[in-house]
Design a protein that fits this description.
By secondary structure, the protein is mainly alpha-helical. Helices cover 72% and strands 3% of the residues. It contains 10 helices and 2 strands. Strands 1-2 form a two-stranded antiparallel ribbon. Helix 3 runs parallel beside helix 8. The termini are far apart.
Length: 225
Amino acid sequence: MVILYVEFILLLRVWGDRVHGQSHILQYYGFEITRINGVDLWRGLATGLITTLLLFATEGALGWLVWQPQSIFLLRIIVEGLVMALALGFAEELLFRGWLLDELQRDYLPHVALWASAITFAAAHFIKPLAEIIRTLPQFPGVLVLGLLLAWAKRWRRGRLGLSMGLHAGLVWGYYIINVGQLMHYSRTVPDWVTGVNNNPLAGCIGLLFLSVLALSVRWRGSYI
């Protein structure tokens, strides 16, 4: 996958130069190494992490989960989770909110391109065997809202990808710490469709609610630019 993605980035440069006449296509997509984009990245990272931790804290306060003792390897999990989340945020945002969204915007109205990119993003998470698709299908609405959130974040920041990458990474990082660190288990006092089918917060009402509030707040702020 790493080799394929490196090839994708190299081909993007050829695509930008030969097809669109853009010699700096990555910057055109919103991936630029600037102070403001860096601030957006860390701002999004903090927002995503806090949102995820707040979600689990709320569930704990409601008695829907039970916290477990901290692992002695928690610091390692935090660090490796950060590295993995930043890599994932970079890769998926450059692909879906960078290249794909730009290609769609060249041929369709902005709102059509935005929804098409979000639906494609959600559908791409179900390239798996049929049995696994059926098992994880409840998370589709959550991934769709995530796709809208990240596209609205890019639009709010005038085409820069820093905030989208940060939000994506922060949400993944928080879940990685809780899940891989085995910091909690669900008490089963409410149905799985509330907390998340297959223990996935995106496949539950409470996770979808938190993500929707975050998405709508970003969309609302972006509507004033």
